[in-house]
């Protein structure tokens, strides 16, 4: 399940941030490693909410820094 | 000019909001008519918009209440499939001298006139960011720029809207969303009728063009800012006040 989530997240991140899927590691930080700005991260969270049909609160969204944060959050919800 | 665009106008059952809704409809935009209390009047405005050959419906929401606004934005995007234009017009007055102003009067005006803009812009921006385009026009007021005795709450809220406009303009600029404000002067509406004749007369002396404005004159400026003609304009305040304020 976790792998599956990671793959789905990678796909969205690759598309949204215009990076290669192969560059997206579990540990990658959106801002430091993948070139995202704060607005990109907000948008990413919005897209993940739609894709995984869940609502990420502002408090939780603020904690999201890396790919792993997203995957752990999503898996924790399901 | 706005054909194929969809718009949400808050506080559109009467006054300037109504004029804006009709103006956008006559330019070809589909329009959602928000109201808080006047359901029948709002539906009449929606019907008048439909007469222009566009889609229009009325939608209830108190912009001061976040849940209301969320539900409204959801309904509008579901009905129209997109949201291109948001006009934050809803506003109330609770005029009094500061020494007599109750905290409730302060809160009510700030909640509707300033926090309401925050709620609506936040709700609409999600859709606009996805679309990679959008126009937000906030209706401020000349008193937000120059102040007015007896309107501490109203002028504070309207000045707040101008600061909010500039910050949002900067935040959303990378996503091609333009955010501007209009600052109407004294416009013939129910709101200004309440001022009384002596106040109105002394006002006229401060208006270079020597008359009150019409709601339709504000609406035309708003339509400009909501159109592609204003694609390179953001974070600005357009005075529509007969020359009261000159920058």
UniProtKB/TrEMBL annotation, chain A:
<dbReference type="GO" id="GO:0009245">
    <property type="term" value="P:lipid A biosynthetic process"/>
</dbReference>
<feature type="modified residue" description="O-(pantetheine 4'-phosphoryl)serine">
    <location>
        <position position="38"/>
    </location>
</feature>
<dbReference type="InterPro" id="IPR009081">
    <property type="entry name" value="PP-bd_ACP"/>
</dbReference>
<comment type="similarity">
    <text>Belongs to the acyl carrier protein (ACP) family.</text>
</comment>
<keyword id="KW-0443">Lipid metabolism</keyword>
<comment type="function">
    <text>Carrier of the growing fatty acid chain in fatty acid biosynthesis.</text>
</comment>
<dbReference type="InterPro" id="IPR006162">
    <property type="entry name" value="Ppantetheine_attach_site"/>
</dbReference>
<keyword id="KW-0275">Fatty acid biosynthesis</keyword>
<keyword id="KW-0596">Phosphopantetheine</keyword>
<dbReference type="InterPro" id="IPR036736">
    <property type="entry name" value="ACP-like_sf"/>
</dbReference>
<dbReference type="GO" id="GO:0016020">
    <property type="term" value="C:membrane"/>
</dbReference>
<dbReference type="GO" id="GO:0000035">
    <property type="term" value="F:acyl binding"/>
</dbReference>
<keyword id="KW-0444">Lipid biosynthesis</keyword>
<protein>
    <recommendedName>
        <fullName>Acyl carrier protein</fullName>
    </recommendedName>
</protein>
<dbReference type="Pfam" id="PF00550">
    <property type="entry name" value="PP-binding"/>
</dbReference>
<dbReference type="InterPro" id="IPR003231">
    <property type="entry name" value="ACP"/>
</dbReference>
<keyword id="KW-0276">Fatty acid metabolism</keyword>
<comment type="pathway">
    <text>Lipid metabolism; fatty acid biosynthesis.</text>
</comment>
<dbReference type="GO" id="GO:0000036">
    <property type="term" value="F:acyl carrier activity"/>
</dbReference>
<dbReference type="GO" id="GO:0005829">
    <property type="term" value="C:cytosol"/>
</dbReference>
<keyword id="KW-0963">Cytoplasm</keyword>
<feature type="domain" description="Carrier">
    <location>
        <begin position="3"/>
        <end position="78"/>
    </location>
</feature>
TrEMBL record, chain B:
<keyword id="KW-0444">Lipid biosynthesis</keyword>
<comment type="similarity">
    <text>Belongs to the short-chain dehydrogenases/reductases (SDR) family.</text>
</comment>
<feature type="domain" description="Ketoreductase">
    <location>
        <begin position="5"/>
        <end position="185"/>
    </location>
</feature>
<keyword id="KW-0275">Fatty acid biosynthesis</keyword>
<dbReference type="InterPro" id="IPR050259">
    <property type="entry name" value="SDR"/>
</dbReference>
<comment type="subunit">
    <text>Homotetramer.</text>
</comment>
<keyword id="KW-0443">Lipid metabolism</keyword>
<feature type="binding site">
    <location>
        <position position="187"/>
    </location>
    <ligand>
        <name>NADP(+)</name>
    </ligand>
</feature>
<feature type="binding site">
    <location>
        <begin position="11"/>
        <end position="14"/>
    </location>
    <ligand>
        <name>NADP(+)</name>
    </ligand>
</feature>
<keyword id="KW-0560">Oxidoreductase</keyword>
<comment type="function">
    <text>Catalyzes the NADPH-dependent reduction of beta-ketoacyl-ACP substrates to beta-hydroxyacyl-ACP products, the first reductive step in the elongation cycle of fatty acid biosynthesis.</text>
</comment>
<keyword id="KW-0521">NADP</keyword>
<comment type="pathway">
    <text>Lipid metabolism; fatty acid biosynthesis.</text>
</comment>
<dbReference type="Pfam" id="PF13561">
    <property type="entry name" value="adh_short_C2"/>
</dbReference>
<feature type="binding site">
    <location>
        <begin position="154"/>
        <end position="158"/>
    </location>
    <ligand>
        <name>NADP(+)</name>
    </ligand>
</feature>
<keyword id="KW-0276">Fatty acid metabolism</keyword>
<dbReference type="InterPro" id="IPR036291">
    <property type="entry name" value="NAD(P)-bd_dom_sf"/>
</dbReference>
<dbReference type="InterPro" id="IPR020904">
    <property type="entry name" value="Sc_DH/Rdtase_CS"/>
</dbReference>
<dbReference type="InterPro" id="IPR002347">
    <property type="entry name" value="SDR_fam"/>
</dbReference>
<protein>
    <recommendedName>
        <fullName>3-oxoacyl-[acyl-carrier-protein] reductase</fullName>
        <ecNumber>1.1.1.100</ecNumber>
    </recommendedName>
</protein>
<dbReference type="GO" id="GO:0051287">
    <property type="term" value="F:NAD binding"/>
</dbReference>
<dbReference type="GO" id="GO:0004316">
    <property type="term" value="F:3-oxoacyl-[acyl-carrier-protein] reductase (NADPH) activity"/>
</dbReference>
